[in-house]
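Q: I'm writing up a methods section and want to include an example of the input and output format. Could you take the sequence below and give the corresponding predicted structure tokens, formatted cleanly so I can copy it straight into the document?
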Amino acid sequence: MPTCPPIPKAPSSRRGCPAIAVLLALSLFLPACSSRQAQPSPTLSLQAGMVLNRALFLSWTEASEVDFGRYEVYAAPASEPLPDTPVAVLEEADHCYLSVRGLEPETEYAFRVRLVPAAGGEGTWSDTVRATTLEDGFPEGTPPGSIPVPTLMYHHVRPLDTFPPGADPGGWYPSESFERDLAWMKAHGIHTVTSADILDGRLPENPVFLTFDDGYTDFLDYAVPLLVKYGFQAANAIVTQRTGGQSVWAIPEWPLDSLMTWPQIRRCLQAGMEIGGHTQTHVNLYWNQEQMPQVQGSFDDLVSALGFRPLYFCYPWGMGGHDFVDAKIAVGDAGYRFATATWPPRHANAASDPFFFPRQFANQEDTLQVFLEKTRFRALAGPDEIPPER
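A: Here is the clean output for your methods example:
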């Protein structure tokens, strides 16, 4: 194994928190090899991407099959030298995702990637990139008397054995775990709420707001039947000009998947679910401000297709975590009255900004204990209900 070139040390921000599961968000851009003739060594450019629940999404352009042998990913706290052994080896040129475990929250890490050619040899190293993990679900500072409103974000719910290759643990949630969570909430007096309940202050004891993004067909196939079974509701934000199609905005970061048609969305309404907007084409309103009219367009699409004025909106890509005033004004002007953010993940309460309402990401590997910590329902659990984490 070749020795990883050393990196400069940086002060550590390690806090000694328990180790957690984290996804890396990196972007590798590898130039295609147009022929088998000798060419200059390719440049490997490594970038840190969007942070979600102490997670960085890993994506890269496909390497030339002529050049590609494997990717090796190296990681360590920035205060320590990178190890000689990679934390992961990717042996397919089109592999788009990587889970690196054991990272600590609020800690700066250093990463390097090595492209090893098929013919062997030293290969090409990226520069060192540093990124700091986030604490998962830190409180906002709840005003006295304010009611906590745990708010969770999902994209997909379906059986674990049906997850496609490249399924992002931060966006795909097993239906087995979803039913486990719903059953626990039902048994402990938890009540789901809608955006209207939060706005009007009609909050029952132990409220929780369950939100889904994008309008995937597995919401109707798997999530809705379970929600109805336990007498619960959830909201789903629809990409209004992509209904009946596929999630083309997701590639290459996530696999394509099918989106509900308008008749299917109406079935969700009939089952008691809340439906809202998510722009018309899933555009990031912070980075594409010229697309702001899509907010009004999505509202008008919902009115036209479903015959009611929606209250709920969700910012695609979470606007990269930017609390962008122009977008919030556009949401209100369009007719929406409530909008959820994506990151950084925070605990929500009745006093949270209704146009940038915080959420927690439901992760594929969340145990019941993690779910209860994200929802702050841990105190409702009996001492023998939850096995200790190993």
